[in-house]
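Worked example

This section walks through a single chain of length 59. The input is the sequence exactly as stored; nothing has been trimmed or padded.
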Amino acid sequence: MALQKVTLQAKLKRGTFYWVAEVEAASEEEAVVAAENLFLAEMENAHEWEFSDYNVENA
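Given that input, the structure is written out below as tokens.
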């Protein structure tokens, strides 16, 4: 197994959400599932989230 950095993207009605996680996995498919599971675990505490960085560009 190797440490892999996974970026998941979800297109929502009002924007795009990215989740980036580092996971130990033997394959790309396993890495995606592991990252999804980490995200679902974090959703349980979504009320505690706070954005710590941002980037603003003219559209």
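What to look for: Strands lie at 2-12, 15-25.
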